[in-house]
């Protein structure tokens, strides 16, 4: 996942071509990075039921402390100087089809049970020049930003 981020930064060509040698994250007033970043909650599959219980009780902080993206950012490995709004919503990964409150975290395979623990894979990170005001008005199922 980290390598995907690094490759995108290395090979993405945007803006003034004379600035190609410069890190793209320094070339724009605002940079929004959003999508399914595929980082997971790093807990053993044996914790699946405990994770779902914590989600139902809206106890996200312990799970967020094991969030791979948060851990990698805290270690300074990816998304340096990017910000993310506080996560106050349940994980968006592995909902059962057509539901918003049941998780399908196990799948029977010929080789055994595969676990896909609920995680916050869908993320929005932003980076703006200093003293530029960006206000997040909603971060969750719906997203809304305003720039002043």
UniProtKB/TrEMBL annotation:
Gene3D superfamilies: Endonuclease/exonuclease/phosphatase. Transmembrane segments: none annotated. It comes from the Eukaryota. The keyword DNA-binding does not apply. Residues 1-140 form the Inositol polyphosphate-related phosphatase domain. Keywords: SH2 domain. Signal peptide: none annotated. Pfam families: Exo_endo_phos2. This is Phosphatidylinositol 3,4,5-trisphosphate 5-phosphatase 1.
């Amino acid at each position: 996942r980290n390598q995907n981020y690094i490759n995108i930064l290395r090979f993405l060509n945007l803006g003034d071509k004379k600035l190609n040698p410069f890190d793209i994250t320094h070339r724009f007033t605002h940079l929004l990075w959003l999508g399914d970043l595929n980082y997971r909650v790093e807990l053993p599959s044996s914790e699946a039921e405990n994770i779902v219980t914590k989600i139902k009780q809206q106890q996200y902080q312990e799970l967020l402390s094991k969030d791979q993206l948060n851990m990698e950012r805290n270690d300074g490995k990816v998304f340096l100087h990017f910000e993310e709004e506080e996560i106050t919503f349940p994980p968006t990964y592995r909902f059962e089809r057509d539901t918003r409150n049941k998780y399908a975290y196990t799948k029977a395979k010929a080789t055994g049970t595969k676990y896909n623990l609920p995680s916050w894979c869908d993320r929005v990170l932003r980076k703006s020049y200093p003293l530029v005001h960006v206000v997040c008005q909603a971060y969750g199922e719906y997203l809304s930003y305003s720039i002043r």
